[in-house]
Write a structure and sequence with these properties.
Blueprint: H1 2-44, H2 51-62, E1 116-119, E2 124-127, E3 134-143, H3 148-155, H4 157-169, H5 173-176, H6 179-201, E4 208-216
Length: 217
């Protein structure tokens, strides 16, 4: 009986040891979970309430950028970071903006307009002043205004032709011979046409007149 009692005594003590181990393990797990929760709360607090976050931010701000070899860039005489080979401050990365260089003069631009031409059909033929000879002349005009100017010239072509013939009849042979005299005659014709169009339509718009042919007979 005594032997059976001695064999049963260790069997009774064995469950107590297991219970102790299980209890200690549970306490350790609870402690680890509580510690993790506290650490998570500290890390997720705002920067002004989380000392750990403040330390990390200050360290990140204070630490200068390093080059590809792990060394911090040297500063110049004014304390600014040294520039790289492209002129940008070292450590600036791809987001750094290079300092603006001297700006050149802007390229001048000229506003251009389409030039419209109109040539009167047929010739202007009339006698010259103080001469038995008569002049046969072809006339064209140009404008950079819209098509309304050409339409007005065509609309009042009869009056325009009469005005040009009257002006040509006042010229002598000397007045129509030579390049310079023809240029003067072109200006006179342009002014006469614009005056007539202004009277009829309140706007002239003819900018150039060309004598494309002039024959004295």
């Amino acid at each position: 009986m005594a032997a059976e009692a001695e064999e049963q005594e260790p069997k009774k003590k064995l469950p107590i040891v297991k219970i102790l181990f299980m209890t200690v393990g549970a306490i350790a797990m609870v402690g680890a979970g509580a510690g993790g929760a506290i650490l998570f709360q500290k890390l997720t607090k705002p920067a002004d309430e989380n000392p750990l976050a403040i330390v990390i931010e200050r360290k990140a701000d204070a630490e200068p950028a390093k080059d590809e070899h792990g060394a911090a860039p040297a500063a110049d005489s004014h304390g600014a970071p040294a520039a790289d080979s492209h002129g940008a401050p070292a450590g600036g990365g791809h987001g750094a903006v290079a300092p603006a260089g001297p700006t050149g003069k802007p390229v001048p631009s000229k506003e251009t307009y389409v030039t419209s031409y109109f040539e009167f059909p047929g010739n202007f033929t009339t006698n010259l002043r103080g001469s038995r000879r008569f002049a046969q002349m072809s006339v064209a005009l140009a404008t950079q205004y819209d098509k309304k100017v050409i339409e007005n010239v065509q609309k009042h072509e009869v009056a325009v032709r009469a005005e040009v013939l009257a002006l040509l009849a006042e010229q002598s042979e000397a007045d129509v011979i030579g390049v310079e005299n023809r240029k003067k005659l072109q200006v006179l014709i342009k002014d006469a046409i614009n005056k007539l169009l202004t009277e009829r339509t309140s706007f002239g718009g003819v900018e150039d007149v060309y004598i494309t042919a002039l024959v004295l007979q």
